[in-house]
Every structure is written in C-alpha cells, then in structure tokens.
Amino acid sequence: MDIEARIKRRQRRNGEPRLIQDYEAISPVVHIEEPADRGPVLERLLDHLDPVFDGQLPPNAYVYGPHGSGKSAVITALFANLEQLPTAQQPIIHTTTRAQPPTSPSFVYVNARETASEFAFYHAVLDSLVEESVPEHGIGTETLRSRLHELVREQRTGIVIAVDHVGEPESIDASALVDLFAGLPSNVSWLAIGRDDPSATELTRYTAESIGIDRYQRQMLVDVLMTRTSNGLAQQGLDHGLARQIADWADGNAHDALAALFIAAELAEENGQDRITQANVDAAIEEVPVPCVSLGIVLSLPTNRQAVLRELIDLEESERSSVTATTEAIASAQSLDLSAGTVKRFLYEMAESGIVDRVEATTTNGQGRPPSRVEPRFPPTAFRRLYDLRQ
Fold it and tell me: Does 244 have pLDDT greater than 70?
C-alpha cells in the first residue's frame, strides 16, 4: 500500500482508538514478507533452485497444492528475496546490456490472473527485467516478443520465471502457457504454480520435478492468524480460542481463514468494538461460501466487472429475484455507465467462470423455466471493503 493510502487510513480514525490498525496486514489477498510455518516447503523449493547459487539455471518445475495452501505466499516471498541476489544492472528497453554478465540468473514473478493474454504475459516479463516501465499502449505483441527475445539472449546466466495461478478462471491455462514458454529462448527456466494434480496437467511433460504443497495443519493456521492479527489489529484484538475456531472451520485453507478473520474484524469495527467477539466470528464463518472463490481472482477482474459485482452485493433480496431483475437494478446504478445488455453479459460470463452462481428459484408460477437469482461465490463484506479501499 502506498504512502498516500496509509495517510488516508489514519485520517479516517478521527483520533479514536480503532480495532483495525492495518487492513493490509489482515487482508486475504496480501502476502506478508515472511510466511508463517512454511519452512519445510521453502527448503524444498530452495533445493530445486540450488543451481542458481552457482550462476546456473535450475530445471523447470511444477508447484501444486489445493486452494489456500500458501503456494503464492511462499513463492512471492522467495522470489522477492532471490531478486536481490547479485546481478548486473538490467538495461532499459532500448539499450544494449553491459559487457559484464550477471553473477546469477534474473528472477521474474508473473501473476497469471493479471496476464492472461500473450501481450500481457510478455509485457509483465519484460517490465520486470528493465529499469524503465514498458509502455502499455502504442506497441504490439510482436514488438514486445522481439525485444524480450533480444534481452533474454543477452542474459548469459538466464532467467527464472515463476508463473502463479495457472489454470484458474480468467487466467492462463496450461496449454497456452506451454506455448508461451516454447516461444522463449533456451536460457529460460520456469516454475508453474497451480492447483491441478501433476497427472492432470500437461505442464509436467516439460518439467523435471513436481513439488507438492499440502494444506496447513491446524496449529500452523492458528499461527498464521495470530501473526496477521498482531500486525493488523489492536492489542488483544483476537482471542487465541477464536483463532482456533476459525482454523478448525477452514480445514487448512489459509485464504478462507483469513477471509473469515477479515470479515469478523470488519463487523467488529462497524460496531465500534475494541476486539473480535464470538458473534463476529460466527457471522463471518456463515458468510464465507463453501467452496469459496479466491478474492484474489475477483479483485483481478477487469474494472467494469468488479464495479458490477460491487453493485450486486448491495442489492436487496427482492432486486435479485431473477437475472433480469438483477440486471435492471445494476444497470440503473448512477455509478455505472453500462447498458443492461452489457451487465447481463458480464453476469453470464462470471457465472460461467464460477465467480457467481445462478440459483434457480424453489417456487414457480408453473409457466416456463423457473427464474434464477444471482449469488456471489465470494464473501460480500470482504470484497466490499477491499474494493472500496482501492478506490
């Protein structure tokens, strides 16, 4: 979060003590610098990447595990540290490299939720390797690819690319990713991170190793919650017993556990409480759908689709009695400049990808197909606050 956002957050306190000291610290879509209780996983990843410490490229690998197992938390923290290994200064996009090669490979982390197209993928990789920002407009995919090829070939010790969230809705699928990697020079090594079992993805045809990450054990998840709480809430904001309750319910899923913590804290904050109560936790758990779509997926959607969802979660139940009623209510919102046809198309597309559900009514008038209402597959309170904080 930038300085301006932090200042605005403190201004909202109006001089009064607040339960939530830092929304970012308890956010289910933010990864902290030191993930809790993931030492063994980190060691396995370091074992695989060990050649980089001799200036060599490791083989390709596939990192997999269930939703909420901490894959992204570990990978982002690890790559953030590996990026600080000694390397030569990277060039600006229009310059040539220095004669002195880097002493270790360069490291690039790519969030596939935000780079689903070929252009976006090449742009993200290139932007990570050069000093100046790569233009997003007025430049074509072929130009980006050509400049990336030129730069990668000049990196004598190569590049290691981690592509996270492969195969999720609105993300890069395995086949497309294989094609993208095949189009890069040979001195590129990659880690693909996804949820599919190694036997269910073609990525493992091109990897030397598959590294599995299991769900969090209960005590590990309690430690995650208490670490986040100590950084983000007022002192004694969450009782250890309530943290255990959330961890038991989440069954090893850190995303769902953090979503419940975030919601409980928000409910307590709205009530002017100085700590989270049992009632807050019960209400938070009740709100998280099972299964729950990752809030990271929802917040990576295009801006206009997020705006539609923001209106959706504030509709009255009567306004969501059918897709048509929901469409009309959202399209009439003054904050949107979208036609009813566009809103309906967005809702159908997001239903297709599982971000919302179309739930058929239990009673009908006996004529034609029963109407269906639209229900979010993510917790509204958490999305509402996270969305509003970004505005």
Answer: yes
| Omega of the bond leading into 291 within 30 degrees of 0 (cis) | yes
Look at the chain and count its residues.
391
Spatial distance between the Cα atoms of 175 and 372, rounded to a whole number of angstroms: 34
What tokens appear for 273 in the block? 């409480």
Return the axis-axis angle of helices 303-312 and 380-390, rounded to nearest 10°.
130
3-state helix, strand, coil in the chain (%, to 5): 50, 10, 40
The two structure tokens encoding residue 276 = 């989270």
Q: What is the DSSP string of 52-70?
A: GGGT-PPPPEEEE--TTSS
CA distance 173 to 169: 9
The half-sphere exposure of 267 on its side-chain side, counting CA atoms within 13 A, is: 22
Question: If you average pLDDT over residues 18-34, what whole number do you get?
Answer: 92
Q: Which helix (H) or strand (E) holds 352?
A: helix 340-352
Q: Under a CB-based contact definition with an 8 Å cutoff, are residues 112 and 91 in contact?
A: no
| Residue indicated by tokens 């979660």 | 313
Cα angle at 197 between 40 and 81, to 5 degrees? 40
In the sheet with 159-166, reading across from the earlier edge strand, the strands are 106-111, 159-166, 188-194, 61-64, 209-212
Q: Can you tell me the distance from the alpha carbon of 222 to that of 247, in angstroms, rounded to the nearest whole number?
A: 6
- pLDDT per residue over 340-357, tens digit each? 999 999 999 999 999 999
Report d(CA 322, CA 302) in Å as an integer.
24
Assess contact for 163 and 190: CB atoms under 8 A. yes
pTM of the complete model beyond 0.70: yes
Answer whether 62's CB lies under 8 Å from 201's CB: yes
| 61-64 and 188-194 strand pairing | parallel
Any idea of the CA torsion for 343, 346, 348, 351, to the nearest 10 degrees?
-130
